[in-house]
Design a protein that fits this description.
This protein is α/β, with parallel strands linked by helices. It is 59% helix and 7% strand. The chain has helices spanning 3-14, 35-50, 63-66, 85-94, 105-131, 134-145, 153-171, 179-197, 210-224, 231-237, 240-263, and strands spanning 23-26, 56-59, 74-77, 80-83, 225-226, 280-281. The chain starts with a helix and ends with a strand.
Length: 282
């Protein structure tokens, strides 16, 4: 999108308040959604809750194909459809909802660097494990991805997606990596995040930013998703402050808000039950 078009969209978005009937679309939660999509969807939900912006979560088998970018999740707000965390953050900011107003320019640049680290390491690792690890793709990924569709479409779409991701991995230099090397990359990413977080409740201030939402989405999903083995989750569990960080956001922005929403139907938040102690099926 050109700068002029981007400015026009921001102007249009700012002209309308955030509605009570905003919708977030994501793949089917129980039987279809994959590790990477679940992480991205949870990150967006966390961000919107941190901004206190109501949204109804709707699961659709074809959410990926409905999305303007071809990636889940996406939100439908008024006359606008916006996909993925970064553009959704900018869209919310245009409406006057920002989590970074208290940061200086140096902090904003640092936050951008850590955001790129998470996307380049954790998200890429999740995609690799789903589609390039033969055991995971054969036992879990292909059947889940194609589950909403009849035979032979389910197999065709799954193999088509696998070819697409493996081509991407080759382009970025990940195709030749072993699963052990991927786990080591995840560990290095977690080490960097752990060092930056330290003993703080959030990465930059006493209040969360979109980086906190992004990190939570990925780490929480890794910790609570059952894969063919626990090697990926064990890397995260080595960092106690990251575990506490996930619990803090779960308690502050999911458990507490869900208790409040059960008392007031005006909140607009969906009921979400996520527990760090229980792994969910992948």
């Amino acid at each position: 999108m050109s700068m002029a078009a981007d400015a026009f969209v921001s102007q249009m978005a700012a002209a309308e308040p955030w509605p009570e009937n905003a919708i977030l679309f994501q793949p089917l939660k129980g039987e279809q959604i994959l590790l990477s999509d679940n992480a991205s969807c949870l990150a967006v939900q966390a961000f919107l809750r941190m901004c206190n912006l109501p949204v109804q979560v709707i699961c659709r088998a074809n959410a990926e194909y409905m999305s303007p970018s071809g990636k889940a999740p996406f939100i439908h707000v008024g006359n606008h459809v916006v996909s993925e965390l970064g553009p959704i953050v900018q869209f919310a900011k245009a409406k006057g909802h920002s989590l970074t107003d208290g940061l200086d320019e140096i902090q904003k640049a640092e936050m951008k660097a850590y955001t790129e680290l998470v996307n380049n390491m954790l998200l890429t690792a999740e995609l690799y494990i789903q589609w390039c690890d033969d055991s995971t793709s054969a036992k879990i990924t292909r059947s889940r991805y194609g589950s909403p569709y009849p035979w032979p479409l389910n197999h065709i779409l799954a193999y088509q997606k696998q070819w697409e991701i493996r081509r991407k991995m080759k382009a970025i230099g990940w195709a030749g990596k072993t699963i052990k090397q991927v786990h080591e990359d995840v560990d290095r990413c977690c080490q960097a995040l752990s060092q930056r977080l330290g003993s703080q409740p959030y990465f930059f201030t006493q209040q969360p930013t979109e980086l906190d939402a992004l990190v939570f989405g990925h780490l929480f999903t890794i910790l609570t998703t059952q894969l063919t083995n626990d090697a990926l989750g064990e890397k995260v569990k080595n960092y106690e402050n990251l575990i506490k960080f996930c619990r803090r956001i779960e308690q502050n922005y999911f458990e507490e808000q869900d208790r409040e929403s059960s008392l007031s139907s005006a909140s607009g938040y969906p009921r979400v039950t996520i527990e760090l102690r229980r792994k969910q099926s992948f």
